[in-house]
Every structure is written in C-alpha cells, then in structure tokens.
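Lecture notes, continued. The same structure-token format from the folding unit now serves as the input rather than the output. Read the line below as a description of shape only.
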C-alpha cells in the first residue's frame, strides 16, 4: 500500500487489492528490489485477461525506481503474456495529465482509442489507450493458475531481470 500511496493521489484501497487476488482472470506481478537486505517492493502491474483482451488495471513504480526501465519491463510482461495467449488487444486507462505514463505507453505502441470524461474526478479525464496485435487464430486464453497471483520480477544493481 505504501507504493500505491506514493504513486497516486487516489490510491487503490487494501480491499481493492484483495479483490483482485480473488478474481480468476486477474493477475498481479510484483517487482522486488533484491539489492536491499530484506527486499523492497519497487512496483507492480495488475491486469485482467478477458476474451481476446488483456487490460492493464494498475501499474505503479515507486518514485525512487522510476526512469530505470521498470515500468517498461512490467508492461512488457503483459505484452509477452498477450502474445503467448494470442490476445488481440491490450488496453488501459491513463490519467490525461500523466505525461510520463502517456509517453511510456505511446513509446510502446499504444494509441489513444477514446476518452472517459470525469473518470478520476470532475475534470480529471482518462485516456483509453490500446495496442492491437495481429490475429493469430481462435485460441482461448489459458485459465489462470494460482501461482500466477504472486508472480514477481527481480531488480538488482545489475538492472531488471
């Protein structure tokens, strides 16, 4: 919750995170900094896989870990999963004023697909961004496995792995 509070003006509640752990088509990947004695949560991404689409619900990188490729690595994990399960879309919502996140997503090939007015608050709109994959045939998404809920990537002094 500390990372969530440092990253967002309106953070998810503990209940929202617990809910995602129970949703069968939800997956959260944690990024841990192994260079600290006890390990430190550096960021995470939460996504849904529904039909032929993966949707990024929440992506957070703790401020001290920003601008080192961790956000890109977390999004790439979702994109790799989308390719593996032959999804045709990856979508997300991003705060219209979040220039850094918009630049990251645009740089990775996402395009604006729509606008959700007042999504975050009155006057705080969300851009809907999407990345389309070429169709590879009708292959259903695999069912989630319990161990996926606590997946993690590791970062160290050598970078993200």
């Amino acid at each position: 919750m500390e990372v969530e509070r440092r990253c967002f003006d309106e953070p998810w509640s503990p209940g929202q995170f617990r809910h995602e752990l129970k949703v069968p088509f939800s997956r959260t990947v944690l990024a841990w900094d192994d260079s600290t004695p006890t390990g430190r949560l550096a960021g995470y991404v939460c996504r849904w896989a529904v039909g032929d689409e993966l949707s990024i619900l929440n992506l957070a990188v703790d401020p001290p870990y920003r601008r080192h490729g961790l956000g890109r690595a977390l999004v790439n994990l979702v994109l790799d999963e989308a390719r593996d399960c032959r999804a045709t879309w990856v979508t997300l919502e991003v705060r219209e004023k979040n220039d850094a996140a918009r630049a990251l997503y645009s740089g990775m090939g996402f395009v604006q697909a729509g606008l959700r007015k007042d999504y975050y608050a009155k006057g705080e709109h969300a851009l809907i961004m999407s990345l389309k994959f070429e169709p590879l045939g009708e292959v259903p998404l695999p069912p989630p496995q319990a161990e996926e809920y606590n997946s993690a990537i590791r970062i160290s002094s050598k970078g993200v792995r």
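Point for the exam: The first strand starts at residue 26 and ends at 33.
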